[in-house]
């Protein structure tokens, strides 16, 4: 069996030339960096709120009613102040 090479016809040569020309004009893509804003969790660092010595902790059973009421009112004010400190500490982390 004999291998016979046929010469390229004008149309097929033109197609081959256009295919090569199409690949030659292709530009290599350039790397482009884009900044993307993404929220990142960070730990909240606030000083710990110290628990006060409550006024009603030192009450005894034998104390008068007036002493007990005064101590409970004082403790109520202490708790309100303590809660405000806790709210301030947690709102600093928002």
Describe it.
It comes from Pseudomonas putida. This is Lipoprotein. Keywords: Signal. The chain contains two helices and no strands. It has a domain of 51 residues. 45% of the residues lie in helices and 0% in strands. The mean pLDDT is 84. With 94 residues, the protein is mainly α.
Relevant terms:
mainly alpha, 94 residues
The fraction of residues in strands falls at: under 5%
End-to-end Cα distance? 86 Å
Structural class assignment: mainly alpha
Number of helices: 2
Return the string of H and E elements: HH
The whole-angstrom Rg is 43 Å
Mean pLDDT: 84
Number of E strands: 0
For the largest beta-sheet, the strand count, sense and barrel status come to: none
Helix content: 40-55%
What is the general shape? Answer: rod-shaped
Spans where pLDDT lies below 50 across 5 or more residues = none
